[in-house]
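QUALITY CONTROL LOG
STEP: pairwise intake check
CHECKER ROLE: data steward
CRITERIA: each record must contain a sequence immediately followed by its structure tokens, with no blank fields

ENTRY 1 OF 2
RESULT FIELD BELOW
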Amino acid sequence: MDSTGNVGYYPSVALDSNGKVHISHQDISDYHLRYCNNTASDGSWSCANVTTGGGSIYVGAGSSIAIDSADKVHIFSI
């Protein structure tokens, strides 16, 4: 799913109303909060940094992801 850097730490997972997967997690190689989903029509995965700059070991640690009734993604992290 995500292979850029040293990723996948402290994951949080949520499903939307279509059964698509949404994941937030930490990249510890440069301390970014990352977001991944498989919402593409072919089910392929897409991942991106949510934060910029990095530099703090706390960025992305302990994130929590939720999907609201309109399928909007909400991510909280310390």
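ENTRY 2 OF 2
RESULT FIELD BELOW
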Amino acid sequence: MKKTILTLLIMLCPVFAFAGDYISLGSTKPINSCEKNDSDVHIFDAIEKMASFPGGNQALITYLNSSIVYPHAAELMGIQGCVKVFFFIEEDGRITNASVDKPIDPDLDREALRVIKNMPKWSPAMMSNGRKVRIRMSIPITFRLQPGNISNFSDY
């Protein structure tokens, strides 16, 4: 199990090195500075400071490494793959609306969503005027078994 989690950690390192490729932002409505921000309507595409996990990317990797539990059924079946989870970071740093982009396996998808939904609050994104804004992000979570760890039902 530790080898599986270590492999997961190693697989995620390059992902966070190129995290800019996985961040998806879009604007749904022009921003009027006199208008109250309705978080369900506004998603900003030009921000001054990107949202960040408390402690940075290394802390995020540590969090994922310590939180992810490879689903036993998927492990027995030898199911592996990358689950890309989209979510919003609200103005107060909460994670909301987490969803899987392309499902791989119900157990792996459920585990990836569980870990993302249980993340601590992030430091929210900010506009150049210091206003906190809601943004959409994604994190790919790779589930990979070590060759010696893959089991099948004939082992029992």
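INTAKE CHECK: passed for both entries
DESCRIPTIVE NOTE, ENTRY 2: Strands lie at 81-89, 95-100, 125-126, 132-133, 135-143.
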